[in-house]
Amino acid sequence: MSIAKQLAEPINLLQQITRNSYRVLGLPSDASWQAVAKRAADLERTAKVGVSRPSPWNLEWYGPLRQDHGSIKDALARLTNPEQRLRERFFWIAQSEQFLAGLSPANFDDSISALKSSLFPADRHDAALLALLSCFSTDTDQHDSKRWTTTIQMWVESIASEDFWSAFLDVEEAGQFEPAASFEEFERLRAHSLEAVASPIGELARDAASKGEFQTCRRALEILRSTPLPHEIVSENEESVLGPYEDALVRLAAEITKICWQDIRQDRESAEWNKTPCSSAMERWKEELEPRYHDFLSMAGTHSSAALRVQQEYAAFLHSLSNALTWANQWSDAEPLLSEALCFLSANSAKREQIDALLARARREGEAIAAAEREKERERQKEAELENFARLCKRIESEIGRQLLTSKPLLDAIKLCEHSLHGYD
């Protein structure tokens, strides 16, 4: 697969790189305000006549880059805002023009390794940034989980370094930006830096889920879980991805249950009546709810906290549906649903006792119904035998009558009777 084709998908996902103001202007992250203003003015002039001013910091191999009037104005505005400027710088590189001129996806690993072994905290940060860019460039389906987790580990180590943040603050102070970033704005970025790193992976998961690529979504979430990121950051990303799907699943289950039970008559004489709402609920469960439930597990993974919550809700739904089926005297249909519900419940769930009791009754009632059906079948067979016997008797009687009307001896008639009776036996 060509590099261009490999990069086609991730371009719109890693917005922190794609639309980075320093990339638009073609400058390193340690550029001063004077360099920013001069570069923006130069680009404005060339944009008017349709001439481009390429720079190694444009990373043109990473995908399309807009340098029209609107893009330049937007980039300049973001670098004028202290809080946005800090974030743009956090997701950009400060390497030399010579280094960037030789950088390409073909030599990512060598470049990352060289920067990672540097003694300078800015180089180690840039290694982490290029590693993240490499992940988005070559493995957007997250099949190489080790590459992703190693990348996040590099970010965690860089962010934990006091030397990195000291150098980061020095760049801001030396840049002579007006207004300069305050200490509070600097600390805010630092406090939320790990969230900022996790966010692109969460966006990958959301994007995959919206396209119905549930396995890709699950792999992205599993990568987040396997990283040294704090639990609350992982949980927040999981919630942002899975929350809407979980809520929709719970609402659908509640809707099916409500519609079914509002038409159920809770007396045994109404079993036939109750079959209609039960049939509708069963149909919606199989066609609507069950597929969504399996899709959710494909996204969340069977052992995630979100999956465990949904399994509890799904077990409650199956319990309620099974209960409705019992009022339609459909015990044999209720039994497998109750057994399935028990599989989803935790060992200490309060609902286990209720479901166990109903399951035991469903089995007894099912066995009784089956026994009654077997008895009915035996009665039907007896009736059929009696009907066959009556028909045979009439035939014998008719044949004997015909023989007696002939001149043959009575002995022949007796033999005919014996033959006929033997045929019946």
Describe this structure in words.
- This protein has 20 helices and no strands.
- By secondary structure, the protein is mostly helical.
> Helices and strands: which structural class?
mainly alpha
Multimeric state of these chains?
Answer: single chain
Our estimate of the beta-strand percent is: under 5%
The tally of helices reads 20
The gross shape turns out to be: elongated
Please give the radius of gyration in angstroms: 38 Å
Query: Which blocks of ≥5 consecutive residues have pLDDT under 50?
Result: 1-12
Distance between the termini: 80 Å
Instruction: Encode the helix/strand succession as letters.
Output: HHHHHHHHHHHHHHHHHHHH
Range of helix content: over 70%
Provide tags for this entry.
mainly alpha; disordered N terminus; 425 residues; 20 helices
